[in-house]
Specification:
OB fold (Dihydrolipoamide Acetyltransferase, E2P); 21% strand
Amino acid sequence: MLVTTNAIVLSKIRYRDNDLIVRCYTQKLGVVSFLLRGVLKSKKGNTKVAYFQLLSQIQIVIAYKSNRSLQLIKEAKPHGIYSSLHTHVLKSAIVMFLAEVLSGTLQEEEQNENLYHFLENTLLWLDSQSEYSNFHLLFLVKLTKYLGFYPDMANSDLQYFNLLEGEFELKPSHKHSIGGENLTLLKTLLGTTFDALSEIKINAKQRQSFLSMILLYYELHLGSFRPPKSLQVLNQVFS
């Protein structure tokens, strides 16, 4: 069966001498892994490799077979072309980090149009911006809505937030209850949009503290999730 779908590249690894295994989040089929045979062998293949940079948006035609773990791509072309995500050092660090996060959270092979459009639109937004140092923080907060553990906004005026329960509370009831600056920033991000993100001013120490907290939130709600290896690089470039 031939399936034409848009897709976002999550990861790629070299396989044998000239092949690549690429994992994508597709608009129509959810998470799908592909074997790209001989793509590293020729100059023509190198052009195709450029399509599969991390978080690239592409349109692909898949020779899909449900019983095959590695699908085959018949055709591929760019879709939603970036001007800066892969060439700007700071944005590239964000791309590497978010690709790891998404690889660790998007495990199921299922369609989710709303999630796909969120990823598609926010990445295009990031590509167009000149102020984006807090982008990954808001992205991680907003992503929880599509993963099923968005904070319960009832009682959002209370002074603590229980990371394990995903609820605001009057008193800290658990070792993973947070308050202080991280709580203030969480409430701020929950109430803002990407277009208003530049109005939020925090320093590098606050950014790193909040990032550690939100990644812990992911770990508590997604049993298989682990902090990305690129976290240290991201913290260094935004320090």
